[in-house]
User: Which sequence fits this backbone?
């Protein structure tokens, strides 16, 4: 049975409230004060704000719990704050009366980056969110997870909600002007992830004004089959006489939100800077509009934490080489826990064009569940290539799916009842596209019709678990033509039949050539035939030029009329010539620069150690480490490299630099350190994610960073800059309420230390605002701060 609020947002428009923080600021919220505590200290203020939104027609109000989490509050106070906040919201609903209203448990980010890019474990994040949800219980009508800027943290929050509550869950994320989350995900990626995890409605809030946010909404509408929510800011902030104002008026806001409805939004509200006036005008402008009908999108999507891969007209390449079957070196690596080798295999395949990586750790002599989890965690730490979890062990499968930062392919399920009962509940819980093998209790049918029947039965069973047919990819099973010349006929004909039914397909192509010479040639010929019949994807060696050429030439490849004769001709051909000389995929030699660019810690460390035997330490730094960081930094600035890869490269550089320091220490020498830079998040702001990223990058470029942490008074920043003789201070602010504190800090430093420059950044900052508060520099991201430092501290031409 559908929950009432889910039915309402599916069938019509649902109105959410606007900002809480800026409304509290108007009512005297002090800098640095946690807004959630006001539910205990001044509940009448919170209730008054809720009533203001309800009185203009809101359907949903968010309890004042956005920042109420175990990292900020003790267990006792957390319970008190959540209870008081819910009570304030419920009291407002009761006092206003009228139509049916809904109270949301409002959950925001925890304020820490998850491993491997930060220091918070995924399961710890899940438990923190779970505590919030368990504390609230069923006292609200829904759970609203909002303002999320990291796909992994979003997954942790949504999992916690699904595991600890039966309430509907709505999720909205923060996209920047490049239409990306902070950690790199685009809208298509978040649609794949959130729909896979079972959100009831999804969308966008904060960061952007309505016009720019509508561009992101268009992508959501193109790919999502769920109700969509949009809650923009009132534009960009600026200050006048110490008051934070926004540049989009209530009238402009409401008119642009009419476009949101036309694009496909069903949930409408506001974020930073929006007030009851904004929401009133929004409702007035849209109340008579009929929202777009929500339609089911027939798309097959998997994703990593940055991008989605769609199975459509272009064949998808799934790299096969992380699999111990027939690969002695992979088997050895898995036995010896040689993750560096596994990571190299992943990097090489991705560089060769693999769009997805198959990961198989199935060896009887190892703990597959433990190793699979470690391998998946390691791979997603250095690569943003989506993964295919290849295991027959349900425990290993769940371990991997749970910690995977994206929507994976699950390889595989088959037509046996036992298999479907083990796999489908996990696919439903964690999301995933399932590879369906066309075999059952009777074995593998020897006709294409028999294999198609099994595929149809698997798809029907999947639907009974709530898994759509678009999340099933059928493997019609490749058998060796060396033992059965009809093998190609059965497999390819089954592909053709399934394609005509609109079902996606995949194959482990290399099985066709088992027992034959010239395997790459045989594989590519068979692959061409399968592609000509509509094959959607292939698990294959991405280093094979023949296989990649088969993809390029697929539209001009003629189908063989007689597939049995096709197989016979190939066998005769390859047996008559010499064995091909196939170069192993992992024989390439990686340089230190390449290892750092790829974010490989162990490789960077060992290559630096080897290089230092023949090169001067400072040469290694200046000619290998720093140039590698420059390459990654340039990619980040161009939008081709995302934040997680940038951080992993920085960590790899740090491991290499550690070897340099070790050599210098033995020689009683020191690495040349650059200037000192003081960094801090300003008074009243408790967010330090962006600041911490800046620190990592600056240190890897050799700067001496004095990190004062978060919520730092302007006097302490000044005092530290004076004491340390710093010529550059970097300030961060994420909250609109702390913008005045940044302005005061800038002015104080300029007054007391005229030779010290100040660079500013953070989610609420813009170049225009930086100029307004007379900051010397503005950086929109961490790499930009490095560029500012490099330019500012560069020797003048006369030096």
Assistant:
């Amino acid at each position: 049975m559908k929950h009432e609020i889910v039915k309402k947002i599916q069938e019509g428009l649902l109105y959410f409230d606007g900002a809480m923080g800026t409304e509290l600021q108007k009512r005297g919220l002090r800098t640095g004060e946690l807004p959630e505590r006001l539910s205990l200290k001044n509940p009448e203020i919170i209730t008054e704000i809720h009533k203001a939104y309800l009185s203009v027609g809101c359907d949903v109000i968010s309890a004042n719990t956005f920042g109420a989490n175990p990292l900020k509050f003790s267990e006792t106070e957390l319970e008190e704050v959540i209870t008081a906040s819910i009570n304030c919201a419920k009291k407002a609903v009761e006092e206003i009366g009228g139509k049916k209203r809904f109270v949301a448990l409002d959950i925001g980010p925890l304020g820490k980056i998850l491993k491997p890019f930060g220091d918070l474990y995924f399961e710890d994040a899940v438990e923190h969110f779970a505590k919030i949800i368990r504390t609230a219980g069923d006292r609200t009508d829904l759970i609203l997870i909002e303002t999320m800027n990291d796909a992994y943290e979003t997954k942790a929050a949504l999992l916690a909600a699904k595991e600890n509550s039966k309430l509907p869950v709505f999720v909205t994320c923060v996209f920047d002007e490049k239409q990306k989350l902070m950690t790199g995900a685009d809208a298509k990626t978040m649609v794949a992830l959130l729909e896979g995890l079972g959100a009831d409605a999804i969308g966008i809030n904060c960061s952007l004004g309505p016009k720019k946010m509508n561009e992101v909404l268009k992508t959501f509408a193109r790919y999502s089959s769920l109700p969509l929510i949009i809650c923009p800011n009132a534009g960009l902030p600026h200050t006048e006489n110490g008051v934070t104002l926004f540049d989009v008026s209530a009238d402009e806001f409401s008119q642009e939100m009419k476009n949101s409805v036309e694009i496909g939004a069903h949930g409408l509200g506001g974020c930073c800077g929006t007030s009851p006036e904004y929401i009133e005008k929004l409702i007035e402008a849209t109340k008579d509009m009929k929202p777009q009908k929500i339609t089911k999108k027939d798309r097959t999507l998997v994703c990593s934490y940055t991008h989605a891969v769609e199975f459509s007209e272009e064949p998808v390449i799934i790299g096969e080489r992380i699999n111990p079957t027939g690969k002695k070196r992979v088997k050895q690596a898995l036995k010896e826990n040689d993750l560096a080798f596994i990571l190299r295999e992943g990097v090489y395949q991705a560089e060769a064009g693999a769009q997805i990586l198959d990961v198989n750790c199935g060896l009887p002599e190892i703990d597959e569940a433990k190793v699979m989890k470690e391998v998946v965690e390691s791979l997603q730490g250095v690569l943003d290539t989506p993964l295919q979890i290849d295991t027959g062990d349900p425990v290993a499968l769940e371990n991997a799916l749970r910690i995977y930062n994206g929507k994976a392919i699950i390889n595989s399920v088959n037509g046996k009842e036992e298999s479907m009962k083990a796999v489908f509940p996990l696919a439903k819980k964690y999301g995933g596209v399932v590879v369906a093998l066309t075999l059952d209790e009777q074995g593998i049918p020897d006709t294409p019709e028999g294999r198609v029947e099994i595929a149809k039965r698997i798809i029907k069973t999947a639907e009974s678990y709530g898994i759509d047919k678009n999340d099933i990819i059928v493997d019609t099973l490749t058998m060796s033509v060396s033992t059965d010349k009809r093998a190609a006929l059965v497999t390819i004909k089954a592909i053709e039949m399934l394609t005509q039914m609109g079902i996606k397909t995949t194959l482990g192509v290399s099985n066709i050539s088992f027992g034959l010479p010239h395997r790459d040639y045989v594989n590519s010929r068979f692959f061409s035939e399968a592609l000509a019949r509509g094959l959607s994807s292939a698990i294959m060696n991405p280093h094979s030029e023949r296989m990649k050429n088969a993809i390029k030439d697929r539209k001009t490849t003629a189908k063989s009329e007689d597939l049995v004769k096709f197989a016979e001709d190939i066998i005769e051909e390859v047996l008559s010539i010499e064995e091909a000389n196939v170069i192993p995929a992992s024989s390439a030699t990686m340089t230190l620069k390449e290892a750092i660019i790829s974010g490989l810690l162990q490789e960077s460390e060992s290559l630096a150690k080897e290089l230092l035997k023949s090169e001067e330490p400072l040469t290694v730094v200046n000619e290998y480490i720093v140039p590698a960081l420059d390459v990654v930094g340039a990619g980040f600035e161009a939008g081709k490299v995302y934040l997680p890869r940038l951080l992993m490269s920085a960590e790899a550089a740090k491991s290499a630099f550690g070897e340099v320091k070790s050599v210098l220490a033995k020689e009683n020498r020191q690495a040349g350190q650059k200037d000192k830079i003081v960094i801090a998040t300003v008074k009243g702001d408790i967010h330090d994610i962006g600041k911490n990223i800046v620190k990592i990058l600056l240190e890897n470029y050799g700067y001496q960073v004095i990190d004062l942490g978060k919520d730092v008074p302007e006097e302490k920043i000044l005092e530290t800059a004076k004491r340390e003789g710093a010529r550059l201070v970097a300030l961060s602010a994420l909250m609109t309420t702390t913008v005045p504190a940044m302005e005061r800090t800038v002015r104080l430093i300029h007054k007391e230390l005229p030779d010290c420059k100040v660079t500013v950044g953070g989610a609420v900052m813009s170049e225009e605002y930086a100029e307004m508060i007379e900051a010397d520099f503005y950086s929109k991201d961490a790499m930009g701060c490095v560029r500012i430092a490099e330019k500012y501290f560069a020797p003048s031409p006369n030096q």
User: Anything to note?
Assistant: Confidence is low (pLDDT under 50) at residues 578-588. The first strand starts at residue 14 and ends at 15.
